[in-house]
């Protein structure tokens, strides 16, 4: 019998956690089956017992989530459902997860693996009743506001697994208030950061942790209750596992804990074989980082540069249904908060996959083991410098993944699976954030999570859903106005569907929505905008248009206090047509108004009665808009989903409005107009070869904006393969190249970097091909 705390005592088999994980990893690599499981003996010999275990565990995980979230006071958790609980085996591989923000299947697993590989077993030790806390993005977390509580699970005197719970907190004590701040350009400004710290023993949080963590953030009450939410859920799940083992036996549980992961891998492969055609699918995505604007204040001059994120993907589906996702050519990480760890990237894609490719409750690490990922080192999705900021990693993640969805949509379509086709996800923004002294006289921060209900992309059979979900949480909810007004000193003057926000197409992308907020009873209040404005990050599919980009509206010195006192009209409802502003008619003529495409800003001061428009984006469209049903166009007009001018210009509709305001579409005249539009398209079209000759000349002479050139230059510097492919495609001269040094823009960090793995006594865990 091994003595307590002796090497190998945790597992009761003489092996350390690190050695055991190494064996599992090696068997998986050598055989292609998780842990070498070429068969599933428990499932095959006792299918009823196997399914009974699955049902108990899955039900317990979901029950714990739904119960624990009632403890939280934060609307982000209680209203929007921004939490998740996941069960892991002893080596940190996910067995099953609850509903919610399931990107954290991988991120909490990465934290467990980091503890294993860095010998937490001996120091600080792992014992029953311990609790660990992590939000470190350099080891796999998405961004610092996702706080994870991780609890070891013991049975019969040995460690058999882990349970993790994560919530998205309102504030992390970053440079600026809110959970996802901008302005800081390195991780040192991202806020309170905790690396797998032991924060509790004997099921109780340590007092030094409680005191330190509360004073490290602006919203201690919410922080405390969020932690209690995570602890409660983790302990409920741990108790459930102990009850299952008492009833079914430890051997059955441990066999299930490994076999279900291999079953998940096989399930993915089966679906790929059934739903796609083998081949290579190439797509690309971009998004803007407009930092040169005067309303973006950074701490470092070298970060004051406009850049563009580049996310090319090559999807290779083989005849045996194995597949590879290759992001060769992605641009370099940057001096902003939009960088992402490779685990955040690889784990996050399963939120969409579980709605299309693997729509099953068996959500675990099996799908990840069934996928080959290539995320080149040094790119924005796999940084090679320990200084990178990650506070708003979603800006790049959401945008970068859109190429993947379009590629998969094409694969589904080619096999005839039309319902699964998704033309892409909305850019889940704007993010209203800020802080100061709230209506209760307390230091406070806000992060409106209304972005949980953006429009969804159109499918190959129907329109996308209006203001329905977010790519990172399919169960998202915009939340009740009354709850948000209790949490934020911001009154609602309107909450409306955002007209024209969904991408046009045979099937329209789902519309987003907008809320007009007025600062009320606050002091020293600041807010800022976060989202895409100058560029689309989703493109639509098969002729469908991208969703509308964002814009900002803010108004200061509005005179609304006087107008309210005098009973004059107020700016209520939606900003129907930004080209014909209406809000300005109901505020002081001397008000300072900002209306532009600068949708990324840093903190600005707001006084009581100032206005802020929170515009949540729509989804992209599918198919040629000229093929849209006449009745659908009429419905869009009458429900305020499309502006009349665009029904005419884009859909070719001939429309008329009666005295009661009802719109009708003339079917015969519309068909005639559509024939004219098709003829006009042909007239202004250009042969592809001719267009390519012109574009090639622009490339040879480097006739492009500085952000475009810098984007490609950073991709070329990281990948000779991508440069060679680019030059071959455009038939460029052998000596043609493009370097950042020649562009006249700051290149700080382009050549000299330090990876986290270079720190003393740090062993990073790499789960992708670099």
UniProtKB/TrEMBL annotation:
InterPro entries: Hydantoinase_B (IPR003692), Oxoprolinase-like (IPR045079). It comes from the Bacteria. Pfam families: Hydantoinase_B. One of its GO terms (cellular component) is cytosol. GO terms for molecular function: 5-oxoprolinase (ATP-hydrolyzing) activity. GO terms for biological process: glutathione metabolic process. Residues 46-625 form the Hydantoinase B/oxoprolinase domain. This is Acetone carboxylase alpha subunit AcxB. It comes from Azotobacter vinelandii (strain DJ / ATCC BAA-1303). The lineage of its organism: Bacteria, Pseudomonadati, Pseudomonadota, Gammaproteobacteria, Pseudomonadales. The gene is acxB.
